[in-house]
């Protein structure tokens, strides 16, 4: 596993930049001026306790949610100003998203789940299925191609979800607690597969986690506390805050 640092990969340019993000849900402030850069090809872990705003930050960076204030910039475009059609295009082509429980479509086989992004992008069915099969092979679940999510283990389902997120060759993958529902061994297998494949493809990964062992797979780690990004692990920041309050 890699030792997390507070510096981005040497020479890597900024892929996605967030500045001053604020987002509220009713009276609850999830983000309170969060700023963050995701660099090309890096694996960045964002850690923090439950309710610190980690998922909201991921949703804003990936264009799923528009911030109330602040800006997210990708390729010279401010995501919050783009029409939904353009955001959908980016999510299909340039961004991949993996959630804690995979969120595979239960009625589809593993092969069809992975092929779906390609089909939505206009690929022919034969090409989409061949490519999907290759990605299932990369993640070690080619043997589950004909199974539906209900017939797979949690680790297998999550590796299928990773294959689906990477099948279009995205520039960035957003992984929201991708091992949170798995046991230790399955979590390690999923992270090893994700890191290896991302390195091979030069894909940047934004990894949301509360687990220090999972965060250790990243090149760099930052903490999110009370809706604000801090350099260094959130767990350390939380301990420092507790000592000050004590």
TrEMBL record:
Transmembrane segments: none
Gene3D superfamilies: P-loop containing nucleotide triphosphate hydrolases
Keyword ATP-binding on entry: yes
Residues in ABC transporter domain copies: 16-245
InterPro entries reported for this sequence: AAA+_ATPase, ABC_transporter-like_ATP-bd, ABC_transporter-like_CS, ABC_transpr_LolD-like, MacB-like_ATP-bd, P-loop_NTPase
PANTHER family, per the entry: ABC TRANSPORTER RELATED, IMPORT ATP-BINDING PROTEIN
Protein name from the UniProt record: ABC transporter ATP-binding protein
């Amino acid at each position: 596993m890699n030792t997390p640092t507070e510096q981005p990969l040497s020479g890597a340019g900024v892929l996605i930049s967030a500045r001053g993000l604020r987002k509220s849900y009713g009276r609850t402030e999830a983000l309170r001026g969060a700023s963050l850069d995701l660099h090309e090809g890096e694996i960045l872990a964002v850690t923090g306790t439950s309710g610190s705003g980690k998922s909201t930050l991921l949703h804003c960076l990936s264009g799923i949610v528009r911030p109330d204030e602040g800006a997210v910039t990708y390729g010279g475009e401010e995501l919050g100003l783009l029409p939904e059609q353009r955001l959908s295009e980016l999510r299909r082509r340039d961004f991949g998203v993996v959630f804690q429980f995979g969120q595979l479509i239960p009625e589809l086989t593993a092969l069809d789940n992975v092929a779906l992004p390609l089909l939505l992008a206009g690929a022919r069915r034969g090409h989409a299925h061949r490519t999907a099969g290759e990605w299932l092979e990369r993640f070690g679940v080619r043997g589950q191609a004909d199974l539906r999510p209900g017939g797979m283990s949690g680790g297998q389902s999550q590796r299928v979800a990773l294959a689906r997120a990477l099948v279009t060759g995205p520039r960035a993958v957003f992984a929201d607690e991708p091992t949170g529902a798995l046991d230790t061994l399955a979590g390690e297998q999923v992270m090893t597969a994700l890191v290896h494949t991302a390195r091979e493809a030069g894909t940047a990964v934004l990894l949301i986690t509360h687990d220090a062992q999972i965060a250790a797979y990243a090149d760099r780690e930052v903490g999110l506390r009370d809706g604000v990004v801090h350099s260094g692990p959130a767990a350390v920041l939380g301990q420092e805050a507790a000592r000050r309050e004590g």
